[in-house]
Amino acid sequence: MQTLGGRGLLLLSGGFDSPVAGHLMQTVQGMEIVALHVSYEPVLDDASVKKAVALAAHLGFRKLLVVRAGDAFKEIVKRCRHKLYFVLSKRLMVRVASEVARREGCAWLITGESIGQVSSQTLRNLAVIDRVAGLPVLRPLVAFDKQEIIDRAKAIDTYEISVGPEICDVLGPKHPATQAHPGDVEREEAELDVPGLVAQVLGTLREAPMTAAALEVAG
Questions:
Q1: Whether pTM exceeds 0.90
Q2: Which CATH number fits domain 7-209: 3.40.50.2000, 3.40.50.1390, 3.40.50.620, 3.40.50.2300?
Q3: pLDDT digits (tens, 9 = 90+) for 13-49
Q4: Which residue, 52, 64, 85, 196, has most beta carbons within 10 Å?
């Protein structure tokens, strides 16, 4: 079997899904993984960053980069229809990730999304999100159910690191849009300074060191 190889940028949260996705691309496709963690600081503390560092260290990823996007996400909540928040915030993440990928020489974006696992992860919404990607988006877990992902997380020893409350819902609506239309999303984005928000988030970009403490947590 021919593998993809090359270098991919993984959007790494502190949850179960994205570490499994990165591990699959690394071990099955022979891909070198650079991870990007989008922190909700200053809306939340840096707990998710610590989990991401531990996960990246445990899985042996080449590098972990971190950006702080909490203020940008608050701007989306303030100016846009709340039911479209997840699509709008993920489009912002993908724009940021595409630029980071360019700087890091990555040919792919990788996410841990799967169809229908949460109400916002529908084929329509994923297609709308991908419209702003600067390079192909790979979703190795796209057809997995949650139990399959958890089982794989346990098999690669990331489950105990990832366990805990999810943070991605902190600013989101109770009833998100499941069938977002590109025109509606673009009209909402017209209320934002999208290039300015991307630049703002990129301005916080830093590399998180794979410290001995992180390795201890991961072990």
A1: yes
A2: 3.40.50.620
A3: 989 999 999 999 999 999 999 999 999 999 999 999 9
A4: 52
